[in-house]
Amino acid sequence: MHIGVIGMGYVGLVTSACFSEFGLFVTCVDKDEKKIRSLKKGIIPFYEPGLEELVTRNIKQGRLEFTTKISKAVESSLVIFIAVGTPRRGDGSADLKYVDEVAREIAKHIDGYKVIVTKSTVPVGTGEKLREIISENLKEQTDFDIVSNPEFLREGSAIEDFMRPNRVVIGAKSPQAIAIMKDLYKPLYLIETAFVITNIETAELIKYASNSFLATKISFINEMANLCEKVGADVHMVAKGMGFDQRIGQKFLHPGPGYGGSCLPKDTNALLKIAEEHDIELGIISAVIRSNEKQREYMVKKIKDALGTLKGKTIAILGLSFKPNTDDIRDAPSIYIIKSLLKEEASIRVYDPVSMEEANKILPKIKYCKDSYDAAKGADALVIVTEWNQFRNLDLDRLRKLLKCPPEAEGPYFFDLRNVYDPQRMKEKGFHYYCVGRS
Ligand code: NAD
């Protein structure tokens, strides 16, 4: 079977590469000519472990082709996936301009029955809206079906998540479209993946409900962590004790500087907007969004309170991406933290294994360093913001010597916003150590 995927971001490219690995022929489209030129050479425009090998192999075997022309994908494919961005608008709602643009363009080239699938995260009702846009722009009367097939992959382990998903959600009206979608995902049937087949509106909402629930779990444990600090409790033990209850589960109960990335902040805000439009109050989601903002502010306050003032201080930041194994800095806590520190007239030295080039575009006035030790050189404090593996086993003796140690402090200031290190050991190593939710 031949399919088309439109939008070569994290989702579109992973979807294309994985389907081609399943043996399908995939025409990949993006309007960004530079991106397409690179992809044709097997150069991946972002960091995702394992993706380059998969893309290169499938290009060589003739199953992946790249183009800027939507017409090429539509003409050759039975199924067309829309995987363009749905960024946050100023009012929090999802901006559907790219999805609408693509739908109009698809319609112009439809020449026979097609299944048009939204992989992008889109508000409830978008499927219906797409049906209208496409019907209005068809050049001749042709049959087509709309399917919602939201994506749940996590950046950093996207290939594994696509190949072995917890579930595949398919929302559609037409039995023919459902059968075609099941056929596409046949290799996953063989490994007994759960399939949720439902209507389009439900599928669209499953994605927002899932991300909002994950955001809720993170914010919940962050608030518990803040309480732990005041009452002498250990948040990791609280999370462990809670997580053994199978109704709660262990995952997503790790405290930190707040959630970030291209999905949770955007999707919680969009869900709130969808509910508002239907006169439904989502009190929990509003509280989660506020709680997450406060958590970021609290991290800056922690640093400021400890150092007394930030004016004229140099802060070493380790980690920029919103989580390890990706270079994605969209809505990353690091960006908020750095901007707040700069506002307080601190200077920043930073190191991240893969995100510095991307960060340089929005934070040109900070010092990008060659490694963690270079960042720590002469700094008044070190802050771990992203838990990259290489930050888990730093040479602490070397760091202690590189960081400044004010005479009144017990040792150099070390803020571990991901609780990577053991507080007792850090004390023994001579640091003035701060973490999240462990007193
Ligand atoms: P992205 O911003 O990384 O990539 C989007 C791509 O679409 C860009 O390359 C852009 O050039 C292209 N594009 C825009 N308009 C186009 C057009 N008219 N024709 C052709 N190409 C066009 O986006 P992403 O992070 O891959 O996210 C895509 C969607 O998937 C979003 O709705 C997002 O919420 C959802 N999603 C993302 C993730 C994730 O981890 N990033 C996970 C699940 C779902």
Give a brief description:
This protein has 439 residues and is an alpha/beta fold. The protein contains 18 helices and 14 strands.
Task: Describe the fold and architecture.
- The structure is a single chain.
- This protein has 439 residues and is an alpha/beta fold.
- The protein has an eight-stranded mixed beta sheet with strand order 3-2-1-4-5-6-7-8, with helices on both faces. It has a six-stranded parallel beta sheet with strand order 11-10-9-12-13-14.
- Helix 4 packs across helix 5 and helix 13 crosses helix 14.
- The N and C termini lie far apart (58 Å).
- The structure holds nicotinamide-adenine-dinucleotide (NAD).
- Nicotinamide-adenine-dinucleotide binds next to helix 1 and helix 5.
